[in-house]
């Protein structure tokens, strides 16, 4: 059995195809067993937005084709009692995603109007592609010699990812596509595939916005190591990458400007200024000290930022960890109203990226992600009323684990320290 698995892993194409087929089979089986999940509130919201797009209506302009909007709200398709209760609420929810997300929903809707099953199948298709990309990143860049570690990480972070199986297959969500775009941009940047990386990066920003936090890392990876950034060839390459990335992002925004910016501002303020809810890491402090949770939150943010600033000043971390910290800071520390599917964008991207530079730390935080992800799913199923609280504890544990990685890097001896140019790093022989 061991030798068979090892031979499969050494055959790249066969291995990746097997990863995709297994990931897809598991997800399709979950969908087949849970047909009622096609009426989940989020998928109804996605279908509402998709219908607006497929009807040629600007989702962000609530005064456009009011009669059609009212008809879509009051029909029996993609119905959810809370969202459909009043027109303003329906309009707000239907336009609550960025342009490429809405165009994605519209493309699905154009094949079959508000078909929940089709949405779910499309979502898990991209989740399965994400499993393939994670496998490829681990096999090519994590430098792990132990076959069983590779099997566990590929299975736990990709094929049987406990968070994505829950929030992707069981509960229909499309955040796996956002992670796919971000990690795809990073992967092709490492491969020096400038056009592919730039297009995926622009799409990652236009889909959920979070791609912006890995943009500096992607640019860093595109440029040639050991060549000064002011070299003419480097400058041309860097400028071309930035221009292409911006173009690949703006092309999706242009039809919906300027109304889209109002939605973005409202959602950002709502997520930052609200009390902790869903899977925010501050829920525990809010429960234990409801009158002082904001002080705890501010102190936590200051400590996290201070650790990173000192590490940068002491040249203990480079662009990899700087970008990971920026992503983690925004999506997992600053936002107070995110469910675990959104928080997971930060966690899974960070785990996958860390392992490419610090394999041993990647293994450790990857195993933490897998084990605690499984535990939180089990506990959430055992105590349904506390499922989101279990997710928030998982989120808190991941932030603490990431901070521990930072501290460990800071404390490592000089010979093992990765400097700003990221040209030196130790390989794991785990």
List keywords for this structure.
430 residues; mainly alpha; globular; disordered C terminus
Describe the protein's architecture and organization.
Helices cover 71% and strands 0% of the residues. The model is unreliable at 413-430 (pLDDT under 50). The protein has 430 residues and is an all-alpha fold. Helix 2 runs antiparallel to helix 7. The chain is globular. The chain is built from 20 helices and no strands. It starts with a helix and ends in a 19-residue tail after the last helix.
Q: How far apart, in Å, are the first and last alpha carbons? A: 21 Å
Beta-strand proportion: under 5%
Mean pLDDT: 88
Count helical runs.
20
Concise summary:
The protein is an all-alpha fold and 430 residues long. The protein has 20 helices and no strands. Helix 7 (116-141) packs antiparallel against helix 8, helix 18 packs parallel to helix 20 (387-411) and helix 19 (359-382) runs antiparallel to helix 20 (387-411).
């Amino acid at each position: 059995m061991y030798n068979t698995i090892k031979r499969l892993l050494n055959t790249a194409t066969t291995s990746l195809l097997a990863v995709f087929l297994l990931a897809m089979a598991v997800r399709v089986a979950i969908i087949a067993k849970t047909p009622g999940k096609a009426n989940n509130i989020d998928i109804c919201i996605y279908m509402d937005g998709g219908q607006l797009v497929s009807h040629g209506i600007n989702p962000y302009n609530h005064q456009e084709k009011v009669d059609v909007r009212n008809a879509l709200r009051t029909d029996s398709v993609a119905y959810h009692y809370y969202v459909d209760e009043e027109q303003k609420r329906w309009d707000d929810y239907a336009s609550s995603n960025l342009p490429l997300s809405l165009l994605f929903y519209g493309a699905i809707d154009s094949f079959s109007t508000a078909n929940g099953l089709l949405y779910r199948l499309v979502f898990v298709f991209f989740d399965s592609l994400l499993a393939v990309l994670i496998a490829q990143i681990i096999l090519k860049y994590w430098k792990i010699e132990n076959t069983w570690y590779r099997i566990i990480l590929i299975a736990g972070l990709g094929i049987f990812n406990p968070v994505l199986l829950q929030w992707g297959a069981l509960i229909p969500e499309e955040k796996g596509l956002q992670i796919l775009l971000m990690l795809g941009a990073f992967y092709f940047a490492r491969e020096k595939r400038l056009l592919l990386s730039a297009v995926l990066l622009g799409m990652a920003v236009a889909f959920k916005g979070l791609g912006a936090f890995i943009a500096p890392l992607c640019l860093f990876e595109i440029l040639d190591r050991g060549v000064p950034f002011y070299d003419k060839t480097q400058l041309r390459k860097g400028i071309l990458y930035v221009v292409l990335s911006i173009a690949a992002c703006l092309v999706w925004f242009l039809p919906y400007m300027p109304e889209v910016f109002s939605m973005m501002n409202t959602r950002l303020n709502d997520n930052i200024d609200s009390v902790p809810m869903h899977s925010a890491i501050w829920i525990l402090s809010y429960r234990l000290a409801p009158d002082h949770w904001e002080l705890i939150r501010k102190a936590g943010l200051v400590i996290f930022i201070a650790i990173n600033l000192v590490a940068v000043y002491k040249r203990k971390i480079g662009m990899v960890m700087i970008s990971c910290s920026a992503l983690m800071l925004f999506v997992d520390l600053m936002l107070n109203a995110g469910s675990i599917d959104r928080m997971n964008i930060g966690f899974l991207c960070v785990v996958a990226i860390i392992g490419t530079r610090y394999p041993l730390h990647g293994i450790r935080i990857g195993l933490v992600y897998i084990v605690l992800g499984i535990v939180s799913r089990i506990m959430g199923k055992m105590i349904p009323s506390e499922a989101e609280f279990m997710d928030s504890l998982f989120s808190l544990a991941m932030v603490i684990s990431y901070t521990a990685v930072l501290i460990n890097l800071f404390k490592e001896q000089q010979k093992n320290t990765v400097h700003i140019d990221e040209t030196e790093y130790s390989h794991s022989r785990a």
